[in-house]
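Notes continue from the previous slide.

Worked example: a multi-chain complex. Inputs as given:
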Amino acid sequence: MFTEITAGAFVLVLALLGLLVPLILIVARAAGARKLAIALILAAVSAGCVVAVGGLLGQTAPVLDFSRAAPFSFSLAVDPLSAFFLLLVSAVAIPVTLFGGSYFELHQPEPRRRWTWIFYSWFLLSMIVVVTAATGFAFLVGWELMTLVSAALILVEGDSEERRHNVFIYLLMMHAGAAAVAAAFFLFLPFSHSLDLSALRAAGAALPGGIRAAIFLSAFVGFGTKAGLIPLHLWLPRAHPLAPSPVSALMSGIMLKTAVYGFVRFAFDFLAGGPSWFGYVVLLAGAVSGLLGVLYAIAEHDLKRLLAYHSVENIGIIYLGLGTSLLFLSNHAPLWASLALIAALLHTFNHALFKSLLFLGAGAISAAAHTIDLEELGGLLRRMPITGTTFLIACCSIVGLPLFNGFISEWLTFRSFLAGSVLTNTRAQIVLPLMVGVLALIGGLAAACFVKAFGVAFLGRSRSAEAEHAVEAPVPMRIGMTMLAAACVLIGILPGILLHPLVSLGQALIPGSGVPEETLIIARVIPWTAAIILGVVVIAVLPKRTHRMVPTWGCGFSQLTSRMQYTSTAFSKPIRFVFTRVYRPDRKVERLPTDQPYFPVSISYRSVRTTSFEKSLYRPFVEGVVWLAQGLRRAQTGNIQMYLLYIFLALVSLLAFLRFQP
Amino acid sequence: MNLALDLAQALLIVLCAPLVRGIIARWKAILQRRRGASIWRPYAELFKLFRKEDLVPPTSSAIFRVAPAVLFGATVCAAAFIPVLQPSALLASRGDFFLLVYLLALARFFLSLGALDGGSAFGGMGASREALVSSLAEAPLLLGLAAVAILAHRAELAGMAAWTLEQNVFDVSAVHILALTSLAMVTLAETGRMPVDNPTTHLELTMIHEGMVLEYSGPSLALVEWSAAIKLHLMLALLVALFFPWGMTSHISGWGLAGALLFYALKVVALMALVSVIESAVAKLRMYLVPDFLGVASAVSALAVIFTVLVKR
C-alpha cells in the first residue's frame, strides 16, 4: 500500500517538474500562472521528500521503467542511498523555491523570469534523475541535462563577454568530467551484461585489478570535476557568483552533492573499496581542497566568491571522510569505515543546508544593498535582523561550532581519524591521526573567514549609503531562510534524527559493519552541552542590566567614521601575509609623477592573486591541445583522394584487427 | 554524590579562576620587584564591574550584548569537561576533547564578533590578530591531545586522566614529553599570555585580546574578564589532568578528597609559578613570529602523534 503511494508520488514529482510546470509557464503568461507553477514545484519537491522518507524507512524501492519510451534502457529506482540524496535534493529545494518565488519577482524582468522558472524546474528534475537513476544511461542523461540547464540558468540572468567566457569554461570542464564519468561506466562493459546499476554492482566484485583502478580513477576525476576538488575547481568560483542567488544555492548546495553521490555509488556500492592507495588518493585530494579552498576564501571580499571557495573547502572535508572510509575498508575495519562514511554523508547533508542558506543570505543582501562586496557593506544586522540571524546560524554551522549541525559531522570525521590509530598498518596508523591536525587547521581558518564575512557585512557601521538604507527581505524570502536555519540548529542539537537513518545506510553500503558507538555518544552528549550553555547564557543575561548608549571613543577625533573600521582586506591581512607562498600575489605600485618618488601626487596600488593552477597546470595543457590540433591539421588536406585513402586504411586495419584478434 | 562532586569540580574551576589570575599577577609583580596588588583584586574588580552600567556604542547591534554571555556560557560549559579531584567530570564521561576545544572556539567566535561590532579600528585589529593566532593554534592543540588519547585508547578526558593515573610516575614516554611541550606552548597562545600576547598592555601595536574587549564595560566586561580567567584556569587544569593526575582519588572519601584538593592546588601553584617566571623573563614575540612559535608547537605535536606508533604496546 505504502509502496504504491511512494511510487505514485514519484511519478507525480517527475510529471510536475518535467512537463506540467514548464507547460503552464509557456502557455500562460499571467502572474497567477507563475504562482501556480511555483506552488506546483513546491508540491513536487514535497512529494519528493515523501518518496525519500519512504525509501529511508526501508520500503521496497519503487521502480519506474521508461525503457519502452526511450531508445535505451532507462529506469529510475529509490534504494536507501538514492533515498538519502533524494531527501537532500527535495528538502533543500523547498526553502530555496520559497525564497526564489519572491526573489525572481523582484529581480528579473518578465521574459527572463519565465525562462528562469522553466529551467529551474528542469534543473531540479535533472538532479532528481541523477540521484535516482537505476541505469547508466538514465544517470548520464540526467548528468548532462543538469550541466546544460544550469548553464542556461546562468545565461538567462544576463549577457556579457565575461559571462559567456566563464560559462564556456564551466561547460568545457563539465563535459570533460562527464566524459570521465561515462568512461567509468563503459569500462564495466566487458564484465557486465548491461549498464543497470544492479548489474554493475554484481560485476564489481569480480573485476581484475587494472580495470578496477581505471574505473576508480575515472570516477574520481569525473565526479571530482563536478564536486570542485582542487585542481579541478577552476569553474566553481567563476560560475557560482554569476548565477542568481537561489540558483547558486541550488548549484552549491545540491548540485555539488550529486557528484558526492556518484562517487559514493562507484567507490562504495560498485567497487566496495579497493587497495589502500584509493584511500590515500582521496584523502590527499580532500586535504588539499580543504586547505587551499579555505585559504583562497579568506582572501576574497566578494561574498559569493568567498562562499564558492568555501564549497571547495567543504567538499574537501567530505572527501577526507570518504578517503578515511576507503582506507578503513582496505584495512578490513568495516565498523570504522562505516563511521567515516556516515561522517562524510552527514557533512554532505549539512553542507547542503548551510551553504544554500548562506547563498540565500547573499541574495537577500544583494537585494537590499545592491552589492555583495564586503567592503561596501556593514551594520546590516540592525536593518535586516532575520537575514542577519539566519546568516549567523549558517556561519556557526559551516565553521563547525558546537550546537550547530556542521559540528556533528566534523566531530564524527575527527573521531574516525582518531580511530585510525587502532589499525595494524603502520602507515595508516600515522597518516590518519595526523589528519586531525589538517582538519583542525581547516576549521580554524574557516572560523577566521566567517568572523570576517559576518563581522564586516553585518556588524559595525555601514560602509556605503546603500548598506545604510538596506531594508529587510520580503516575507517569503525570510521564511525560506528561517526554515534552513531551523534545520541547522535542529540537527546540531538533536543529531539522532539524521544519524539513525544514516547508520542503517552505512550498514547497507558496508557489509559487516554495525552501529558505530560514536554516533550514539554524540547524540547523547550534545543535548546536555546545549542545555548547560543555554542555561548559563540565560543566567548571565537575565539580571536586568542597565545600559547607556555612548559613542565609541574616537581617540581624540570628534567622531569615528566607517572608514576607520577594519575592512575585509585588512582583517585577512595577517593570514594572507603568513601564507604568502600560497597566494603568490602580483603587486604593482605606481607613483606619479615618477621623477619625485618622495612627493608623489598619486599612488596606485594593485594586488592580484595569481591563480597558480591556471598558469602552471591548465595553460600547458591548453597549449598542448592547440599544438596537437595544429599538427592534425596537416592530415586534413581537403583532398578527396586522401580521405578515401583514410577510409580504406581504416577498413583494412579493422579487418586485420578482427582476423588477428586473440 | 558523584554528580554533586562533578558539579563542585566545575564550580571550583569557575570560581577559583579569578584567584589564579590574581596570584599570577602578584607573583609577576614580586619577580619584577614591585609590591603588586592583592591576590583577591580580580574578585573585587568583577564585583565592581557587575554593579556598573553597560556602555553600548549606538552603532552596535544585539551581538555586542549577546557575545559576552555566549562567551561565558561556552567557557563555563567547557569547564565542566575537566577532571580535577577525581578522574571524572560533569561532561567528561562522554564528551571528548574535540568537543572541549570546539566549545572554546565557539566562545572565541562570538568574542571576535563582539569586537567587530564596536565599530572602532581597535576591535577589528584585535579580532584579526586573534583570528591568526587561534586558527594556527587549533591544530597543535588537537594533535597534542590526540597523541595522549591514542595512548590512552580513549578520547574522553575522564578516561584519559584515569589511564594516566594508572601509569607509573617514572614511566613517561617521549610522546608525553612532546605532547606536554606543544600543549604548554599552545596554552600560552590560547590564553593570551607572553610571549604571544601581553595581558597587561593597551598599546595598539601589540594588543590582541585587550584590543578585542576595548569597547566593553560594566557587566559585559566582567563576563569577558571572568571568561578569560576561567579559560586560563581550565587550560592549566587540563595540563594537570592529562600529564600530572597523580593525587586524584578514584574512590570518594573525605580524606581522599581533601588530599586531592591539596595536590591539585600544589600542582596548579607550580604551573602558575612557571607562567609568572616565563612572563617576567621572556619578551613578547613580534606579531609575525607568532606563526613560527605555533609552527614549532605544531611540529612537536605532530611528532608526538607519530611516536605513538612506537610507544604503543
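Summary box: The mean pLDDT of chain A is 88. The longest helix of chain A spans residues 334-369.
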